[in-house]
Amino acid sequence: MDETKTTTPPCPYFGSCGGCTAQHIAYSLQLENKKNLVFTHLKKNGIADLKEIEVFHDSPYSYRTRMDFAISREGLALRKKDQFSQFVKIGKCKISSERINTLLHEVQEWFSKNSARLESYASKSKTGCLKYATIRSSKETDSTSITFILNEESGKVKDHLDLICEFAKTTSAPNVCAALIPASLDASASHEAFPVKGSLELREIIEGKSISFSSQGFFQNNTAMAQKMVHYCREALSSYAHTKNATLIDLYGGAGTFGVPLGDLFEKTIIIDSEGPNIVWAKRNLEANRVKGETYAADAGILSRLPIPANKEVFLIADPPRSGMHEKVIRRILDLDPKCFIYVSCNPMQMAKELRHFVKRYFLKSAAVFDLFPQTVHVEAIVVMERKE
Fold it and tell me: What whole-number distance in Å separates Cα of residue 152 and Cα of residue 79?
């Protein structure tokens, strides 16, 4: 490989840790590769006459605001590359925020001090107590948390909770939580979690709006790029006249990451998410930011039953999971006939396949790549589709 395309990985765990896979590739080439990936899939699926894709990026390191650390016999660790049941103990993670690394150090010290009393979980035998320590930080606020995930079937749960309570008194994290889950469940968060110190609430600032969400729920783990994504959508939607008389639908909306910051452009915002706990936060965020809107804890099938007057224009943002949207959902969106349809995707290959259903009625207005996950092959993309008149 050309030397201009390679670089020396700064992380001592690169190659053994299963997290990063691209630290040896020059960052400019990483961006070019991701742009080409999205371009290729859109072109392959006949998504209009695509000439250019914008690329947005931020810091290639220290960007992650959430890390899920497995707990090994030696302490907090990440999974070994291609070996799920093996671990690499981590002292500092190069792609994590400085705040996360500070808390990582605090938890590692606590684990070392109490190693004789702490029992890590073994996935093969499904025994042991401590499974994960999930650390979350905020870019704009001091909203941080540590959640300890415990095996509810362990006979040492109470002893571990006592030690976690002791840790909560000394850590700089304002929120410390714990959750009990079945031995067979591999999860690093739980809606059944409870606070040992502080609360479950975390907060970010997106486009000047305060977005609160549960430390156990979904939120983009690169807040700087989440801000750029929402701003991109705002600029796209601001190009339309008369949105103040229209409705915005935020589908797969979570706590309202898109719907709340963009809501002031519209007469009404509707946030839909299948997970009830997310919708509880979305409702709070609409109210706290004085955005007129409604929330629905339902699957996307509810699109056909929304109370939208026939004379009102509709704009829609969809941010589905990696698996994409079901064909039924695609039909519901087409029946709804939004003026503008924005697809936010963490799986551009799947997104491009689904957009084939829209090309007869919509044309591609713009497309952009957002590097939420530097040093990995993962990429986020946003496509803006406009209805043909």
Answer: 22
Domain boundary pick from 151, 168, 203: 203
Taking the C-alpha atoms of residue 95 and residue 160, their distance in angstroms, rounded to an integer, is 29
pLDDT band at 361 (very low <50, low <70, confident <90, very high): very high
β-partners of residue 343 are 318, 383
Global confidence as pTM: 0.94
Please give the C-alpha separations between residue 273 and each of 90, 169, 219, 270, 321, in angstroms, as whole numbers: 35, 36, 13, 10, 11
Distance CA(229)–CA(344), nearest Å, equals 9
Residues 253, 118, single domain; the answer is: no
| Domain containing residue 105: CATH number | 2.40.50.1070
pLDDT at 172 over 60: yes
CB atoms within 10 A of CB 278: 25
* CATH number of the domain encompassing residue 36: 3.40.50.150
